[in-house]
## 1
Amino acid sequence: MEACTLCQKQPADKTGSHLIPSFLLKMVENYDGSNKRDRGLGFRLTAEDTEVHFERAVSGEKITEVMGELPEEELRNYPSPSIRDYVYCSNCEKFFGKLESAYAPTLSKDGKDNYPSTDDPLTATLFWLSIFWRASAAGTYGFSLGENEQEQLRSILVYYTESDAGSDQPEGLQTLRYKIIRSVGFAKQLTGFISFDPAETEPYCAVIGEYAAFLYFDQVKTAQIPDDFFGFEKVVADAKVNSSTTGEQILAVPDDVFLAANNKLALKMSELKTNYFSGLIIGTAKIYFGFNGKLPADTIKGIAIKIPDSDQPSGKKYSKKEVMELIASELSVYFESLKIESK
Ligand SMILES: [Zn+2]
């Protein structure tokens, strides 16, 4: 058995470990199989490019519009990217569980502008660090911290898994800063999504349901406006800077900030899907027809548009084989027309 990725000592014997704490995951997924129709259902994108960065998002109206409907049965069969087997040992798993139960009550806190969520800054900091570390170490969200940064977080977390951790904070903890933005209750009415910013630059950003989190290794950067991240970069300057020694404050923002982020995600998905289909069309031309030339952009576009409209049963709408067959039949029409023209 592999060693636990956190302590790197004990065997990683735990199954069903959460990369995203279950109380946050509930905001975006029906991972436990419960039917939360009012919240929408999570779906996994089949376009290969999109799987990396947005493993699971939730079908807001806009997203459904872009991606088309997928039946519930189909959705249930996709394994959650947020749950892993054999990555942590029992001790480390217990430690994550302790952090989560200590932080979970902050969910019921509320307020205007920057509101205090907890008076336990150490637990709050470790909680958010653990999320960034877990995502980076697992690599499941197409996200990674720098190698040294990942190790810095790991050694801080390991320090606190040891029961004799005293009141002195370990090296590398006090210099870390983070900001949290939240639209309280957003995930209850509308669906959220999980995404980590794949750009490997500070601040490291994550959006999970109704929360957006920003992590800084360099305090100086807390004053800078980060790069484009679903529009959250526009409000992040107003969020209070948190550390392991100052009580956590969360910036409450209106729903429309998260709604705009949802729409941006849908657009991004649509873009990625278009790129994916273009690749598939060019590939199909090569494999089915031995065509190595350049397909006109209009032809590619014309075929790509037809893919979501195919009258295949919706569950199979996006299976690679069926999509390629559909493309092949469209391409044969195109190649036929070329022959006629050349005569
Ligand atoms: Zn361990």
## 2
Amino acid sequence: MADLRVELCGVSLKNPVIPASGTFGFGREYNEIYDIARLGAVATKGLTLLPRPGNPVPRIAESRGVILNAVGLQNPGVESFIKNDLEWLRSKTKVIANVAGSTIAEYGEICARLDGLVDFIELNISCPNVKCGGMAFGVRPESIREVTAEAKKNCPHTPLIVKLSPNAESIPLNARAAEEGGADCLSLVNTFTGLAIDIERRRPILANNTGGVSGAGIKPIAVRMVYEAARAVKIPVVGMGGIACAEDAVEFLTAGAAAVQVGTANFGDTRACLKIIEGLNEWCDRHGVSKVSDLTGTLVPNA
Ligand SMILES: Cc1cc2nc3c(=O)[nH]c(=O)nc-3n(C[C@H](O)[C@H](O)[C@H](O)COP(=O)(O)O)c2cc1C
């Protein structure tokens, strides 16, 4: 039995597998299928100060190897989460509260509300599906530095993870900007902006027109970006994008990730995270790896 424990910003996780924000709700439905206490942590659906109904439907489209979503940050709001879900979720496992705002001040406000109540705050500055906020803050180094600094000022007691967009000019520059702004950790990737067309109607399938692309097809691009980010900063990196099995997770760890998140794969197989945890254990045993954390950043590039 390999040691699957990893440490992230001084917080110990029982394993490095975390369901990704927006694909796991607050964990209650999945807990009917398996005990979510088995997970390293849970990243919540993106929380905003006020409840949001999200975008009109259709909000999900399928394409070969990927899906597109334009859910539009539908969520009950941070107060409802604190009142109805937080205590239960914390009794199960570590909690990563994923947050979003429409202004820099709003990011600060929501971080202040959650400071000290959750294990991590994950700043979503990379959502492609909302008109105000989201990705607007996450594509350029200057605004990444500014929003990160405001967030960190407001959550001095909680490790801050800044979630980077793949829709970026330079991953290393954006990664460094987040680190300079005071991020304790990075996570990437969020979804890639895409367009799926109903050719009979010659209209976009999604009501929002464009959506965020995720799933197996984005994995090699995400692995490259995680590798670039991990080399650019000293803080830890959480990797995601298309992970569907233990071997995929090992790729991200090797590229430099300290932990991984699993998103779209949960839709195809509700037990995906559990299978990845079990598979990681078997993979490590087969390869003589006694501690999964020893894999992080072990990629040897070709000369
Ligand atoms: C339906 C859906 C909703 C999502 N909602 C959020 C969200 O609220 N906040 C966020 O930071 N990322 C959100 N994401 C992005 C995922 O957390 C993840 O970064 C992305 O899907 C890539 O991982 P994957 O290929 O394993 O799905 C969402 C993704 C999907 C598919």
